[in-house]
Amino acid sequence: MLSPIIDFWLQFMQGFNLVMEYVQHSAILKILVSCIMSLAFLNIVRAGGLMIRKVAMAIAPKKQQRKLAPQPTPINIVRSMARKMELGSLLDWKHYDDMPLAMLLENNGSTVILRICCEPYLVPQLSGGDLPGEYHFVEACFKWGPLRAEHSIDSMKFSLEMQVLHRCNQDHVPFEYVTVSYLFVIMGNGNGPLTTITENLRCIARPDSQMELPAFDLASLMKPFDSNFYSYEGTYDNGAQVLPTKWLICTYIFAISSQQVSQFSTLCGRDGTSIHCNARKEQPLGNRSVNFHIY
To answer: For 214-234, how does the pLDDT look when each residue is reduced to its tens digit (9 = 90+)?
Structure first.
């Protein structure tokens, strides 16, 4: 079976050698053959690059899964076990008090997501506090349930958690995402800044529905803090994607009314039933550590 292949290869090499002899005596043929060989080389490089990208795309999800596996969220933060870490600088919040051009509220079938539209140079960002770069606001999502927000402190449960995702666009940072957590407990007349969101939840009751909110500055809802916060490595989950993230847990606990919490529970998921609880189950800390940052 190999004989026809060998014969073909020998004939091809004879023909190639003959062409190369003619090339030696013709400048035009030299240029033509050089161009053909260059194009062939470029096609080989392009094909090789495509193969590498396909392999990388196939490997990337597996690498991310391996990275996510040892750092599940949420956890119970035990204050007495947290390591005290002194900050080199305070957290710096920029453009959180600027008014965005527009605000969008969405029910993605798993949670409520808040996004904004603003000028590129006015995107809210978080830096300092020993963060390795500038982390820009991406979105905020909410987790709720009857005393079932995701994170707990000394086994104290909360009714709502607002999780604010940030992303760093710089290369070679140890973590690409930072998520700030705000915890709410049922108390008194509720939360004024949160009213703009809770009063409009009825407009996005169905999954995959969204609406434009009256714009307000994020700082009125997401209170900036510069120190005295917990941190650990975990995962952010908005129902559509799971991302590895550095968590910053605000230690100030905010008030929310039972009526406001119940308004979140009227939203419908993709199965047509109300989302009474969308918080993930508590996970063990494992070999990770929780830090408490002071200045």
So the answer is: 999 999 999 999 999 999 999
